[in-house]
Amino acid sequence: MTLRLYNTRSKQKEVFKSLREGVVSMYVCGPTVYDLLHIGNFRGVIFFNMVRNWLEYLGYSVTYVLNFTDIDDKIIVRSQEKQMSVSELTEYYIKAFQEDLSLLSITPHDVTPKCTEHMDDIVTFIQGLIAKNVAYEVDGSVFFDVLSFKSYGQLSGKSLDDLEAGHRVDPHPNKRDPFDFVLWKPAKEGEPCWESPWGDGRPGWHIECSAMCHAHLGDKIDIHGGGIDLIFPHHENEIAQSECFTDKSFVSYWMHHNFIRFGDEKMSKSLGNVIKGRDYMTTYHPEILKYLLLSVHYRSELNVDTKQTYHAISALTRIYTALRDAHSIMDGSTTASADFQVMINDVYDKVANGLNDDFNTPVAFASIFECVRAFNHEVSTRKSKDTLLKGAATLFVKCIQDLGRYFSLFQESPSTFLKRLDQIMIKELNIDVDYVESMLLERSQARLDKNFQKADDIRDSLLLKHVILHDGRHGTIWEVNKHLD
Ligand SMILES: [Zn+2]
């Protein structure tokens, strides 16, 4: 099994080979902490969590660094609006982000460095660039001299001429070239600042990632990730800074996830035009967010709207219902029919092949549904006391939970989670629970009276309201139809 990754720099899938055997270093550009994160920010968090989990499964020891940008213009403006100090504001939102991560039950990052705690590294880095004659100081500002770095544009695949035609550049009287970018800027009155050889000031955005990446992972790293909006100029500038500083190739594999478009009318009405991850997780569930964000390949655009949310709920209902059934059937035996055993092994292989093919999650999820279908088939064709069915249930639960760990999915308690999905859909569909309960009473009376026509009519009318009845030995239970996609 070989892992192949799409490398933004070469624009093709490449076989993954780590710099050091058995070890992977990974740096992902983290959030600017001045607000709760919107759903778009969570795509990278959830995707790179899977990348890390999968690399660990493949036997690598992974160091995953995600930084916090805790000083920049937006932060300063927001702290003034809220009449808080910059550090009070950023600490508040770092904590909020960490709470979101724990709601998501994903693997914690190994290091989460903050820009403001790396000022010495940043200053040393800038000094190194000036010493190499690729950066220059003018009146307390330091700029990177883009023309001095011959391979500038290697990541975005554009020459400076192309870039000049396609991008608005910030003209600045002190810059030698319009594409030169700021490494250090002088302090403005009343703003937080740090000492430097060029006077009190603060760093530009790009330099913090080069400096923190170097401080925690060294000269060269295996994987650098982020959203596609960071390719230019942020990552292009990181390459220029880091490669000039170390004279080494900075990153082996550049991985970028695509955008999220979100909010149809219904969702925007309840959650706002820019949906916060926190609001989505509270209204729905972290499991739904993870499933939704991974159900589309990371290099494709993704719509987050009511339809896609219901689609995710429906998919999760299928998986968790099968898990709940399996839990009630299994008794510890692991002998299933030969066909079922072969199917299970096949699913492990197919999911692995999907993930090894540049993290093709749609292929991996399709294989998981094959497994669900095969198990449901066992349930519907075998007697409940059949030991081969009990064995299939054990293997099924193990398979879904094993595979789910790569995605940080499918580890919820099935009955609790399905109840939660019911509650979500009751709210979404405005189902009146008291009315349903009263109709259920009326229906059982009709059945006692042997008025089966009336009982059927009630069943049909509830079905139109997305309520499904199940008659069993212990009476009738109801659930919400969660397959609205
Ligand atoms: Zn960055």
Q: What distinguishing features does this structure have?
A:
Rossmann fold, 4-stranded parallel beta sheet, alpha/beta, single chain, Isoleucyl-tRNA Synthetase, Domain 1
Describe this structure in words.
By secondary structure, the protein is of the alpha/beta class. It has three domains: 20-257, Rossmann fold, CATH 3.40.50; 266-421, Isoleucyl-tRNA Synthetase, Domain 1 (Orthogonal Bundle); 429-480, no CATH class. The chain contains 17 helices and 14 strands. The chain has helices at 39-57, 73-81, 86-104, 119-131, 160-166, 205-217, 231-246, 265-271, 277-283, 286-294, 306-329, 338-356, 361-381, 387-407, 414-428, 433-448, 452-464, and strands spanning 4-7, 12-15, 23-28, 61-66, 135-138, 141-144, 181-186, 201-203, 221-227, 251-257, 260-262, 302-304, 467-472, 475-480. Strands 4-3-9-10 form a four-stranded parallel beta sheet, sandwiched between helices. α12 (338-356) runs parallel beside α14 and α13 (361-381) packs antiparallel against α14. The longest helix is centred in the middle third of the chain and has 24 residues, at 306-329. The structure holds zinc ion. The site of zinc ion has 3 residues, from loops.
